[in-house]
Amino acid sequence: MNPLDDLISSSSGVPGVTPDGLGRGRTALDGAIATRGRQELPTRQKAAAHWFGGLRGKAIISVAGVAAVAAAVTVIALPPTSAHTAGRPLADSSAKPTVKAPAKPTVKASAAKAPAKPKPVGQTSISPVTYSITATKTDVTAAYVFAQAAKGTQAAQETPDGNVPLVNGWPNATYWYTVEQGTSSTCPGLVDTSESWLAKSGAVVAENESNRPIKASNISQCGSGITLGAYPVSGGPSGPMIGGQIYTWAQFAALPTDPAKLWPILQADESVGVAAQKGEPEQDFLFQTINILLTSDPVSPAMRMALFELAEKIPGVTVGGTYTDSLGRTGIAVSQGSDTLVIDTSNGQVLAAFGAAPPLSPGCVRVSMSGTPGATCAVGGASTTVYISAGPVNSEPHV
Amino acid sequence: MTGDPRSDGELIAGLPRQPELMGVLYERHAPAVFRYLARRAGPPAAEDLLSEVFIAALSASSRVVAHDSGSALPWLYGIGLNVLRRHFRQQEPAPGVTRDFGMDWDAVDDRLDAWAERGRLRVALTVLADSDRELLLLVGWEGLSQAEAATALGISQGAARVRLHRARKRALSALEKLGPGGPDTHVTTLYTKEQAS
């Protein structure tokens, strides 16, 4: 148990409901049931009852997975609001290129034109990235895609750019800089953008988070939509976390990059333990572990390759369409269950993650501020995260 | 609690035609839903809100299926969260006190003996976004699996796993910075800043 688990555990104890409270609740519920029983069942609900009476659980989830993967075109509704902003985070990368920069001449060219405009505190100038996934016929397997990604990682390693030299196979930079953008179908119009600088010394030294404003009617389910703003973080030790332990950059670098030796270490993740207790297949989580490590942690090319080699053995991963986004990046969508990762096989970068919650989830029963069940919410929740950048930089945080 | 042999999934499927089946779900799950509410709002408020969760669930039941694990609890917790948010919004704000629409911190404090522990928990949880905090607590307090917590919040399993991982890392980092002590003045300042921002 780490200090966080100790705290949560010690604060979880509450007295049980009293017999009186239980009885009063039942009486109120019975009253509501009686009222409801007198109402005529709307036709729409009858249809829904019939449909879902015969189709439940796994079947529905797999439908969601197919829908998420095979959707012919998935596009964020918001277009970039200005020409220069879409490439702005990569402007830093062009000054101090990331590992993936050599493979992105188009992006670099456009980023280079971006004016070095000081960013106002509390605002982000990162515009929403638009993207699409086109369904294409493919006969490649997921294992092949992962193998290609491992090769691409190798290739990127062999052509290191001058600004972030590899030392013993490790990107020897001051910071690990990540930029990501999240959207969710349950909060239309809301785009969360976050930047983070993890120092080599082992602390997140700066973060910048912002939300775009949303409609007041969505506040109860989406939060306030306010801008959290830029703030320097003088946090405690941070870095990759495995098994409830936070690793320093150096400790992380010392992990084995032989897939067979790395896997038992990743398995120690406490959340995998939770899943195992509940009888959920722990191997499912490797797919997401790869996502977590590759998109937020200072992963060496060697470890990146090891992760892809491990991924080749995950059963049931399917290959979807081709992803392209407004930053000029392309990748291949691979899916497991209702979750999809987009991987640029030319350099082993994860470009985006998509998740579709099972349909008819509680995303649809959100109670609005007025207290009525939300009628307009989307059926099932779909979330997207675009990883705009994840790599080593030497430039100082611009928060 | 009840001898009804039907699974939660079967009961939910039958709800649109037989709303009285919610009574069976109530007998089965009211104690757990009460604890969920009580952990966040305190036992007195939880007793008042208990029936609201099931009544709201009645309205929504035609659009819901049970989680794969077969339990209706993730779904009921998801509804409980909305009931709680409405409850906290309707409360008269005390002058000068920052409001938290997901938690009555006094009720949480009552469960921790040491002042330092109260402050530390508050720091750990207030550095998180609301939805991430809820994810962490559904797993830590309610004992849901990640997949069940994902269902409760209407997000995919993968998204839940990624967000939970980062939330834990962030909270742990904040705790480690605080050290074993956790002076209350610092906590109050940080809490107010977080809520105001």
What kind of oligomer do you see? heterodimer
Rg of chain A (CA only)? 23 Å
SSE series of chain B: HHHHHHHHHH
> Count of helical segments of chain B?
10
Shape of chain A: globular
Averaged pLDDT of chain A:
68
Strand residue content of chain B: under 5%
Span between termini of chain B: 46 Å
Question: How many distinct beta strands of chain B?
Answer: 0
Helix content bin of chain B: 55-70%
Could you describe the largest sheet of chain B, including whether it forms a barrel?
Answer: none
Q: Please count the beta strands of chain A (DSSP E, at least 2 residues each).
A: 14
Instruction: Give the DSSP E fraction of chain A (strand runs of 2 or more residues).
Output: 15-25%
| Greatest interface by residues involved | A-B, 100 and 92 residues
Strand ordering within the main sheet of chain A? 1-10-11-12-13-14-4-5-6-7
Task: Produce a short descriptive summary.
The complex is a heterodimer of chains A (399) and B (197). Chain A is an alpha+beta fold and 399 residues long.
Describe what this molecule looks like in 3D.
Chain A is an alpha+beta fold and 399 residues long. In chain A, 34% of the residues lie in helices and 21% in strands. Chain A is built from 13 helices and 14 strands. In chain A, the strands form three sheets. In chain A, strands 1-10-11-12-13-14-4-5-6-7 form a ten-stranded antiparallel beta sheet. A two-stranded antiparallel ribbon of chain A has the order 2-3. In chain A, helix 7 packs antiparallel against helix 13 and helix 12 (284-296) packs antiparallel against helix 13 (301-311). The longest helix of chain A has 20 residues, at 19-38. Chain A is globular and about 70 Å long. Chain B has 197 residues and is mainly α. Helices cover 69% and strands 0% of the residues of chain B. Chain B is built from ten helices and no strands. Chain B has helices at residues 8-14, 21-41, 43-60, 73-90, 105-109, 115-126, 130-140, 146-153, 157-178, 184-196. The termini of chain B are far apart. Residues 183-197 of chain B have low confidence and may be disordered. The interface between A and B is large, with 100 and 92 residues.
